[in-house]
Amino acid sequence: MRDASVRDHALRCLRGVPIGLALTVCTGPGAATPTTAPVTTAPAAPSAPAATAGPAPVNSGPTIAALGTENFYADLLAQVGGARVKASSLLNDPNADPHEFEASPRAAQAVADSRLVIVNGVGFDDFMDKLLAASPRPDRVVIDVQDLLGRRDDVNAHLWYDPATMPKVADAAAAALMRLDPENGAYFAAQKDRYVASLKPIGDKVAALKATYAGAPVALTEPVAGYLTEAIGLRVLTPPAFQEAIEAGTDPAPADVAAERDLLTGKNVKVLLYNSQVATPLTKDIRELAERSGVPVVGFAETIPPAFTTFQEWQLAQLDELEKALAK
Question: What is the pTM of this model?
Answer without folding.
Answer: 0.86
